[in-house]
Amino acid sequence: MFYNNALCDIYIGKGAGKKLMDDMRSAKHSVKIISPYLSPYLISELINLKDKNIDIKLITTNNIEDFYGDRERNIYKLIIQKRNKDFDRQTIRNNWIKFTQTLSNISYGLIALLIVLAYYFRDIKVFLGSIPIIILFLIRGWYKTKIKNIKIYSYSYKQLFPFKVYMSNEKTSLIHSKIYLIDDQIAYLGSLNFTQSGTQFNHETRIRTTDLNAIEKIRKEIEDLFENAYIPAVDLQTWGKQLYLEPIN
Predict the structure, then answer these.
(1) Degrees to nearest 5, angle at CA 238 with 85 and 223
(2) b/e per residue, 150-159, with b = 16+ CB within 10 A?
(3) When comparing pLDDT for 41 and 25, which is higher?
(4) Residue 101 CA neighbour count, 13 Å, CB half
(5) How far is the C-alpha of 249 from the C-alpha of 237, rounded, in Å?
(6) 170-227: per-residue pLDDT in tens?
(7) CA–CA gap between residue 240 and residue 158 (Å, rounded)
(8) What is the CATH number assigned to the segment(s) 9-84+155-243?
(9) Using CA of residue 128, residue 133, residue 137, residue 142, what is the dihedral sign?
């Protein structure tokens, strides 16, 4: 993108994100962000905006601070796990469970009977009756393995709001832009990432503009980058499987 003569405000120094955050929290319709780095507590800001029915669109990289961190941290809240149940398999599993319980009852009954017979007849041949008991326990063990391995649940994942996580490594183009577009009316550009250090503590550069022509070009740039098919992105389903446990039954 190239655009000359845009009207803008310039800020250089610490606390470059204060005005940005004020405008973002006052958004009426939408917030769009490109930032290669994110902080967990600022992800919570986006979640709060989503809860207020603000449309969010986010482009970032796998440099998110808690990308592979604690399951309780905020990146997990951006991905919603849906558990799908196979009711036919559940019925089969329940039938197997009942069958193994029946085998157990029969086996323990036979053991009790065998003990009584051995006591009264005091004949070692009585213990030949343990053979069918052993067979019953083997069958029971086989079914228990089948019960353990049958897959009742499958899992799929969806996004809390639209976002792209592009891969950041030496083999791909690094998404390094920091762009914020609020209500398609206010744009911020500069060096500050959507992180606590970037918005509050670092010495950063920040440009704020409401220039209509610039806004339109920035909006299109964000949309084009979001739909880019040539930059490797993290697959949502694969990422979800890395973030969440997936019990099979």
Answers:
(1) 115
(2) eebeebebee
(3) 25
(4) 6
(5) 19
(6) 666 678 899 999 999 999 999 999 988 899 999 999 999 999 999 999 999 999 999 9
(7) 9
(8) 3.30.870.10
(9) positive
> pLDDT tier at 68 (50, 70, 90 boundaries)?
very low
Q: For residue 213, report the phi and psi dihedrals to the nearest 5 degrees.
A: -65, -45
Q: What is the mean pLDDT of residues 114-142?
A: 83
Residue 7 zone, left/alpha/beta (φ > 0; ψ -120 to 50; rest): beta
Render the burial of 74-113: b for 16+ CB within 10 Å, e for the rest: bbbebbeeeeeeeeeeeeebeeeeeebeebeeebeeeeee
| Burial degree of 38 (CB within 10 A; 0-12, 13-18, 19+) | buried
Name residue, tokens 């220039």. 211
- The single-letter code of the amino acid at 150 is I
